[in-house]
Design goal:
Gyrase A, domain 2; 14 helices; elongated; single chain
């Protein structure tokens, strides 16, 4: 859940970017390269520490361990049986999850599935449910011999096509939301329940009746942007960075983290901080060259006749010019009339 934030005011000319970089970079050197269980989510493993920070600032399209926190409606969240019903609708169950064994004959185009009674009981499924789900494919011939044995016939043009079809059969979804590899019911101190998932699919989960659409949280920044928009993604970036730092017992003011999030999202799209994103898209040739790939930037600037107006910080430091920060913001000028008066006064002495 998003935390309530206060407005941050600064003095004109303050080097907010430099201060933010120092404030995040210094404690970042103390972070440990590791992944572990998130507190409270004992059945869901998620990426933490420096690897997670790198995932966020590099704006990677898919996190290694996407997770969701699914909150439920007010009339449901304290009723375990109803929460369990929603859990069954959310966790993806594939044929391979309830499979005991199988035989296949690629030349004849036949496959026999033998299901596990124990696994079927755990997911509260029957062989008939799985057979009817597979029967939706018009290419397959389904013969349910008993509750745990299903015979499948497929007439593929080649053995390779038959093999691919059988692989798809075993990986096909029976019930649940595609992409939710695992879901678990978690309890809170007030007696309410929520569902934690490994894997994410916000759009489909939001369609399930009983889910509180306003209280779904996902650590996949791009999915948040797709479902809720760029402003939500901006807040998610800052919150995720803060969460990772707090779990490493490091304290960084939220204003610095929000500045990073602003820089990554102010164009309306999520961009990385590195040479393929924020740093590599600066208008200044010197600023781009000061970061990475120096020769490449100078060569391209020479070929295309680029001009550098020296308006930023990096480029002015690079050539030894005073930067427009702090006392450098103020420029003093003397009017010609006043200068003539001063000279005349000096000459009269």
């Amino acid at each position: 859940m998003a935390k309530e934030r206060k407005d941050f005011t600064i003095e004109p000319g303050e080097a907010v970017g430099t201060v933010a970089a120092q404030s995040i970079g210094e404690p970042g050197t103390q972070m440990v390269l590791r992944s572990f269980h998130a507190a409270g989510l004992t059945s869901v493993i998620t990426t933490k520490g420096l690897p997670r920070v790198m995932e966020i600032v590099d704006a990677r399209k898919k996190p290694k361990a996407p997770v969701m926190i699914v909150r439920l409606g007010k009339g449901i969240e304290k009723k375990y049986e109803k929460v369990r019903e929603l859990w069954r609708k959310i966790e993806e169950v594939r044929v391979k999850n309830v499979l005991e064994d199988f035989d296949e004959d690629l030349k004849a185009g036949t496959m026999v599935l033998r299901l596990s009674k124990e696994k079927l009981g755990f997911y509260e499924l029957t062989g008939r449910t799985i057979a009817s789900r597979l029967a939706k494919s018009k290419e397959l011939g389904i013969d349910q011999q008993d509750d745990v044995t299903i015979k499948i016939k497929y007439k593929g043009k080649t053995i390779d096509a038959t093999r691919k079809m059988f692989v798809n059969v075993i990986s096909s979804t029976v019930v649940g939301v595609k992409g939710i590899l695992k879901a678990s019911i978690q309890s809170e101190d007030d007696g309410s329940y929520y569902i934690a998932t490994s894997g994410s699919n916000m759009e489909e989960v939001m369609k399930i009746e009983g889910v509180d659409k306003d209280r779904i949280y996902c650590n996949d920044i791009f999915e948040v942007a797709k479902v809720y928009g760029i402003e939500a993604a901006r807040l998610a970036i800052a919150n995720e960075l803060e969460s990772v730092l707090e779990e490493e017992a490091l304290t960084v003011s939220f204003k610095h983290l929000s500045l990073v999030a602003d820089a990554m999202t102010h164009t309306g799209e999520i961009r990385s901080i590195g040479r393929h994103g924020v740093a590599g898209e600066k208008s200044s040739v010197f600023a781009r060259a000061a970061y990475e790939e120096t020769v490449k930037h100078f060569t391209n600037a020479s070929v295309f006749g680029e001009k550098d107006m020296l308006k930023g910080v990096s480029e002015n430091i690079l050539i030894g010019k005073q930067i427009k920060l702090g006392t450098g913001v103020v420029k003093l000028a003397v009017r010609k009339e006043d200068l003539k008066k001063i000279k005349a006064k000096e000459e009269s002495k």
